[in-house]
Structures are given as structure tokens and as C-alpha cells.
Amino acid sequence: MAAVLGSLMTVATFQWMGHDDDNKVMLNYTSSVPINKVAYAVNEEGKAVPLDFTVAAEKVMPAVVHIRSTYSGTARPQYEIPEAFRDFFGPMIPDQGPQQAQAAGSGVIINSNGYIVTNNHVVKDADEVEVALFDDRVYKATIVGTDPDTDIAVIKIDEKDLPFLSFVDSNKAKVGEWVLAVGNPFNLNSTVTAGIISAKGRSINILNRNTEQGSTAIESFIQTDAAINPGNSGGALVDLQGGLLGINTAIASPTGSYSGYGFAVPSNIVSKIVGDLIEYGVVQRGWLGVSITTVNRQLVDERDLDVNSGAYIRSFADQSSAKEAGLKEGDVVVKIDDRPIKSNTALIEYIGMRRPGDKVNITVNRHGKEITFPVVLKTREGKIGPVKPEERDVVASLGMELEDVSKEDLKGLGLEQGVMVTDLGNGKLSRYTDIREGFIITKVNDRPVKSVKEFNEIIKSKKAGELVILSGTYKQSPKSEYNYAFRK
Q: Which candidate, 209, 258, 231, places its Cα nearest to that of 427?
């Protein structure tokens, strides 16, 4: 009895001293462990649901193609890009002897009638382009148009009723959003990888190499950590509904293989370029004619600026639309139409989406005061209206500007004729030759050149793929002759 009484008193004391509902920690358990769904998202009802990549993958894979380009010679021309940023075109493969080479990339079908978007560097200057579909059907493709300023190209195969992807609004994509990258890395067909958007509006300086002279190159990449490798170039970056968010274009890598980040041209830029190439054969891009840089703390201190972000105008190019409208050096562009401008990349992207003849309202901060100027965009040549393909060939494809040389200067150099290269943009000459600004072109394929107009007429008369040889000299060494060769 004493033992029983003692036990009851112990239990009662423990319950009285240790029981406290307010400090109780409740642990919840589930009867099942989700092992095949490892990531979750919140749906429209606010409930957590497992992420499922299978629906998007099944939709996208049939619309992504494998592209094989064949080139004459033993090597394909390469972009001059920083070593850390490699274009991830597939490896060169010897083909039918030493006089040819092949390379592999990816493309995305965007129309049931055979239109395919890819990167410019996947097909540029190729002698033959071959497309392999998801079901292993193979077609010869024709190049509809290319745009070096965005590294986008459109090709076409003769087939109908093809699966295709639709563009979605890349402006609505958010950092942290899940995306899939689909392509053909290392010649492995239809490879799907997943990741997130890790940044937007990235400029990695593989296209914008001449912003001081008012370049029309657009770099506003979507950055993703979805694994992409050599061969993915030109492939699709899609959302989880299978909508086309961008075209995979470059990777940041010291080795040439995946090291954490890839970059895609946003779909809004791609769709504009594609539309122009299909309708006009060349891109219709408005031009401000300004040299700009992003406002940062150092620039604020140096120039005593009244704003901490925007695009600072350093100088103007010839026939600048912005200068004609009243903008001045030292102005900071803070808004265009209703869109805030936080950097030079944002300005270049916005203007690059407009066509010659379009009107934009540019708001600048000038000594602390905001002023808005209506600006009518023009071409680099100061024209309003559609650019013709033959004009684009000379101005943009070659990527240079010329000026006539006076008779007095020619005489002083001991020359009878010639035109001078005053600016090299992002075109064939700057990528594939060692030509420098200041070069005086005296002959084209041994034909004397007396004026810029005559030079344009000669180049326009050349057929696509035809070898062009520019002969001439430099002021520093007028007695030495230099020759630069490229294919139109």
C-alpha cells in the first residue's frame, strides 16, 4: 500500500509541475514521403503543388531541331569574344577530306510551314545547312536572313504541318522562375535541362563592341543556370508551359563547357528580329546615334550628376537623331516613353525594338531638371523608312563606315584614288580580318575605287559567298600595300 501511494503521489506531482499547454511543441508527421517530386510551386489558389517538367519537355522536344553547317576550308570563322565567354557551337568535324568542315548547333521551329530560328553564328557563311528533326527526318535548309547585331538568324525547310513553339512575353519573366533549356549538346539529340532565371538584362560584351560609335548591337540576355553546353547554341529556353522565352546563345566558361551560367536572347527581341527578316529580308532597326554608358557611383562623382541610374550621353555620331531632337552631351536618359531607363543596356534594347520612322519620347535629366524630347528614329544613314537588303549588305554586314579622301590627301600619300575606313562595327571585316580604322581602300578585286558611292556599287554587285579582296594602305606606311579577303 505504501509503494502504491508513493507512486500515485509522484505521478500527481509530475503532472502538476511539468504540464504546461502553452509551452508544448507539436510535431506533425506524414504517412508518405514524396520521393519523385522534389520541388514545389504555389498555384493560383495559393497551394503548394509539385513541379512537373514532363509536360513542357514533351511539348518542346519535337520543335527543337539539330542543325549541321558545312563550310569550305579547314576551319570556320570564329567570333572575336572574351576568352571566358565561348560561343557554344558544336565541335568541328572533318567531312569528305581536308577542304571541308562541319559544325553542329540547334534551332527552334516557330512556324508549321518550316521557319526555324537559330543563332547567326550557327549558319553564317555556311555553304550548306542541314536540319534534322526530332523524328530523324533530314532536310536541306535555306537561309532567310541573319542579324549579327543580335546573333539571330532565320532558316527555312520545305515542309508543312510541323510542330512549333509560340513566343511568350519575356518582359514578364521573373528572376527565380523555373525554365528548361532544350538543344543538342555534344551532338546528343533532344537534351532537356532545368534551372532558374538567375538574372535579366545581362550584357557580356560579345556583341556590343562599338557602343562609342552608336552601335546597333543589342545585348540584354536572360541569364540562366540550366545546364547548356557546346551544341546548345540556337536552342530553346522555355517556361514550364513550353512557351519560348529565348534562344540560347552563349555560356560563361573558362573551359568551353558548362560552368554555371548560360545566356539567351529574350523572346521579345527574337520575335521582332524574326518578323523583320521574314518580311523585309533585313532587320528594320531605329538608331539614335549616341555614345552612352551606364550611370554608376564613379560617374556620379566625376560628373556631379543628380541621378544615380540611367544612360549617360557621352557623344553623338554623325546624323544623330538624338542630337537633331535637342539632346546634349552630359544628359542622362532616365525614361523612354513610359519605360524607366536604368542602364545603357535598357536603352539599347528599347530603341533596337523600334523601326526607322518610329517616334519615341525621351526624358533626360539635365542638371537636375527632367526634360522630354520627341525623337524620330532614323537609319544610320539618316533615312526614314524601310532598309533595303542591298543597303544592309554594305552598311551592316560589312559593319564599317567610309568617307571619301580629298585629292590633296591622296596626292600627299602618292595615291591616285581611295576611300578611308572611319569606323568598324560588328560585321564581317572586324570579325574575320585584321583590318583597322584608317585603312585606305584603293581597289576591290583589283578594280580601282574612287568614291564611297563607287565602293558601294561594287560590293552590291558581288554575289553572296563571292570572294572579295580589299587592297590599300595606311597613312603611316603609304608605300606598303595590304590585302584583306572575305566572302560576301
A: 209
Q: What's the number of CA atoms in the CB half-sphere (13 Å) around residue 178?
A: 15
Asked if residue 65 lies in contact with residue 108, where contact means CB atoms within 8 angstroms, the answer is yes
Contact 415, 478 (CB under 8 A): yes
Question: Which cell numbers in the block locate residue 308?
Answer: 544615380
* CA 261 from centroid of its chain's CA atoms: 15
Distance of alpha carbon 425 from the chain centroid? 16
Q: Which residues are catalytic?
A: 121, 151, 233
Whether residue 192 contacts residue 106, with contact meaning beta carbons closer than 8 Å, is answered with: no
Q: How far apart are CA 345 and CA 85, in angstroms?
A: 18
Contacts 24+ apart (CB under 8 A), 433-439: 433/484, 433/485, 433/486, 434/484, 435/470, 435/484, 436/474, 438/474, 438/475, 439/470, 439/472, 439/473, 439/474, 439/482, 439/484
Dump pLDDT digits (tens) for 288-326.
989 899 999 999 999 999 999 999 999 988 788 999 999
Dihedral-angle region of residue 396 (phi above 0 means left; psi in -120 to 50 means alpha; beta otherwise): alpha
pTM: 0.69
Are the C-beta atoms of 53 and 240 separated by less than 8 Å? Answer: yes
Q: Is the dihedral of CA 299, 304, 307, 313 positive or negative?
A: negative
The 10 Å CB-count burial string (b at 16+, else e) for 16-31 is eeeeeeeeeeeeeeee
CA 412 to CA 110: how far, in whole Å? 57
Three cell numbers at 206?
560579345
Q: pLDDT tens, 43-68?
A: 667 777 677 889 899 999 999 999 99
CA atoms within 13 A on the CB side of 267: 21
Amino acid symbol at 357:
G
Q: What is the Cα–Cα distance from 38 to 98, expressed in whole angstroms?
A: 50
Residue 401: φ, ψ to 5°:
-120, 145
Identify the three-state secondary structure at position 384: coil
Give buried/exposed letters for 386-408 (b at 16+ CB in 10 A, else e).
Answer: bbeeebbbbbbbbbbbbebbeee
- Three-class SS of residue 73? coil
Question: Residues 379, 355: contact at Cβ < 8 Å?
Answer: no
